[in-house]
Amino acid sequence: MSAPIKIVLAKPGLDGHDQGAKVVARALMDAGMEVIYTGLRQTPEAVARIAQDEDADVIALSSMAGSHLPFCERLKPLLEQAGLGERLWVIGGNLPRQDHARLRELGFKGIFPSSSRLADIVQFVREQAK
Amino acid sequence: VKTVVNESGIEIRPRYTREDVEASGGFGFIGEPGGYPFVRGIHPLMYRHRPYTMRQYTGFGNPADTNRRFKFLIENGQTGLNVAFDLPTQCGLDSDDPLAAGEVGRVGMAVDTLADFEAAFDGIDLDAITVSLTVNGAAPQLIAMYLAMAEKRGYDVARLRGTAQNDILKEFIGRGTWIYPVAPSVKLVGDTIEYCARHAPKYSPVSVCGYHIRESGANPAQEMAYAFSIAKAYADEAIARGLGIDEFAGRLSFNFNVFGNLFEQVAKFRAGRGLWAKIVKEHYGAKRPESAWLRMIAGGGGGGLTHEQPELNIVRGAYYALIAALSGAQTMALCCYDEAYTIPTEYAQRISLRTMQLLVEETGLADTVDPLGGSWYVETLTNEMRKKMEQTMAEVDAEGGIVKLVAEGAIQARVSAQAYRMQRAIESGEFRKVGVNCYRSDKEEEHEVALHPYDEEDARRQVRGLEDIRAKRNGNDVQNAVSKISAAATANANVMPAIVEAVKAYATVGEITHALAGVYGRYREPVRF
Question: Looking at the complex, does the CB of residue B116 fall below 8 Å from at least one CB of chain A?
């Protein structure tokens, strides 16, 4: 049996809305994955460092307060420098449709706006990780 | 007949009779409107005397932008203001702090110094409209700025009304704008209560929030029970300073949520009013009737609104306003239909405001106090909800008290497990949500929601303004005042007098946070599942 998929799930920036992140963390754990939930107030540097230390298969962000683009723009080079450029990057939360193309361009393969279903998130991660 | 159990875990019968009321505890704990235990309302005439205050949550960009929106709402008949601050302000950071990058003015108004309060309330009569500040971690600074701004404009602080949210314990459960560890955070709430009781006795320094605990996954009975446990923690803190319960309890207020089953919600508020009155009178021995009043803003309802078919949220908002009115709320606010997408636009704000106005003007809801009182169903449910709340509060006490449970992350883990179960129940279709798991539409893209634009130039202007103030103010005065804050914190004295002096010298939000964190340290979040 292969090791479970390992996910670092982070709350970027100052956004304090963590209900969704914790719900998604539980769904991923229930699906047999290993989830390292960072808690609130993570800087791009902290997310990259934790993901590197944990050798995460998946780097996941949950953003509800609108600062996803500036955050992801700073995170992208840091993840690449940490040698995590080929890992799966996903993001969920309050993500207006007009920003999806830019998020994809920045390297986020999975984009899960509010109202995404847990089953779809779990399935996507299972299929795309590693 | 299919079994129905409400979210609080009470089984609902298909019909109710007088016998059900008797079996649930009878009609003994209701009283008359304006009389203990205030189940029917805290005033004898309620809305017949004065309709609820309408207070939409508003703020974005810089203080000048927010001032314009305030005036728009006042011109449209809004009767209270509720200020939204951006996340750097709420977390005690200046607009030029590296951690504030990309967040200045985004989800609320940016504040760095007293000058921002002066600009935000320019031309607004603070006697004619009451102002609520939605701030928690940085509440000491922002309360000080509000009082200093009012004093500078010639208002008598001893007569000034207003509210600060300033409920830090719930921030650790949901919402997340904490700064310092749990114990000094509670100490700071005590400082503000004590300072206001002595210097601004009409000002409400705390609005205890069940609201966000509910949003984080609590059921309606837990929402009230946890809020009352938190309110007791603050009351104990104030009493430990030598204040009498009657010196501050009348200025405590509450903030609750309204989404969910209409009858469960109305019973929740009626039961909560009785339970809080009982706690204040019997547990704390209050003598003044006003001390036992559960004064509340009821509204919002964000957790019930949906991303799907957003215009249905206008309909939901109307039902939520109905719930708040049937429950005897003093103040009402509604989440706007577009809030799952964006900071509300002017258009959406006006729809919410008109919804609350329409209820007063067209439906007769302001004519009679507690119109559902005496319903066998509602009275039975009120008794049953009160028992659920009492039971939950007793469990909290048995487990070591709310402060300990919050510090350990135990309440957080409990409500987030419930949020997960609810999400699963929605996805399986067991808990019905229209437009989400039934009556879905394939044509949602026909109703694209207009997004509130974020203006980066506004953020840059805010930083330039801050630099300007730093250059103009008297640096020695600021340094002296800030070192007095550190000294007061070190001596475990009340820090509010020193903070008031500091904001008058145009010390920044971040400088004051830095001084306090130097003594108290910073919170580290316990992550538990």
Answer: no
Q: How far apart are CA B399 and CA A21, in angstroms?
A: 27
pLDDT in tens, B508-526: 999 999 999 999 999 999 9
Asked if the ipTM is above 0.90, the reply is yes
Return the bridge partners of B53, or none: B331
Residues of B in contact with A117 (CB under 8 A): 427
Interface test with B, best of A15, A18, A73 (most B CBs within 10 A): A18
- Name the residue with tokens 């049996």: A1
Residues of B in contact with A24 (CB under 8 A): none
According to the model, what pLDDT value does residue B447 have?
Answer: 67
B527 — pLDDT class (breaks 50, 70, 90): confident
> Do the Cβ atoms of B420 and A23 come within 8 Å?
yes
With an 8 Å Cβ cutoff, are B99 and A39 in contact? no
What pLDDT digit, counting tens, does each position of B272-296 carry? 999 999 999 999 999 999 999 999 9
Check if A100 contacts B (Cβ < 8 Å). no
Across-strand partners of B54? Answer: B332
Contacts of B87 in chain A (CB under 8 A): 13-16, 65
Is the Cα dihedral B385, B388, B390, B392 positive or negative? negative
Q: Examine the pLDDT at B445 and tell me if it is beyond 80.
A: no
CB B266 within 8 A of CB B327: yes
Closest listed residue to residue B251, CA positions, set B212, B292, B279: B292
Q: Which of B90, B179, B341, B447 to mutate to test the interface with A (most CBs of A within 10 A)?
A: B341
Contact B205, B251 (CB under 8 A): yes
For A98, the token pair is: 């007009």
Note the pLDDT of residue A123: 98
Stretch (H or E) spanning B163: strand B162-164
3-state SS, residue B333 = strand
User: Is-contact B59 B83, C-beta < 8 A?
Assistant: yes
Q: Extract the tokens encoding B521.
A: 């340290």
- Is there a contact between B215 and A39 if contact means CB atoms under 8 Å apart? no
Q: Please, where are the H alpha helices in B176-256?
A: 182-199, 211-215, 220-240, 245-248
Q: A43 contacts in B (CB within 8 Å)? A: 99
Which chain B residues contact residue A114 at CB under 8 A? 307, 340
pLDDT digits (tens, 9 = 90+) for B483-503: 999 999 999 999 999 999 999
CB B440 within 8 A of CB B432: no
- Taking a C-beta distance cutoff of 8 angstroms, is the pair B483, B179 a contact? no
The full 3-state SS of B461-525, as one line of letters, equals HHHHHHHHHHHHCCHHHHHHHHHHHHHHHHCCCCCHHHHHHHHHCCCCHHHHHHHHHHHHCCCCC
The answer to whether the CB of B413 falls within 8 A of the CB of B302 is no
Quickly list H helices, chain A. 19-30, 44-54, 68-81, 100-105, 118-128
CB contact under 8 Å between B451 and A98, yes or no, is yes
Residue of A nearest to B528 (CA): A37
Look at A118 and B424 and tell me if their CB atoms are within 8 Å: yes
pLDDT at B446: 55
Q: How far apart are CA B357 and CA B425, in angstroms?
A: 35
CB contact residues (below 8 A), chain B span 167-226, against chain A: 171, 174-177, 215-217
B89 vs B100: CA distance, rounded Å: 9
- A23 touches B: beta carbon within 8 Å: yes
User: Which pLDDT score is estimated for B441?
Assistant: 87
A2 — pLDDT class (breaks 50, 70, 90)? confident
State the pLDDT at residue B50: 96
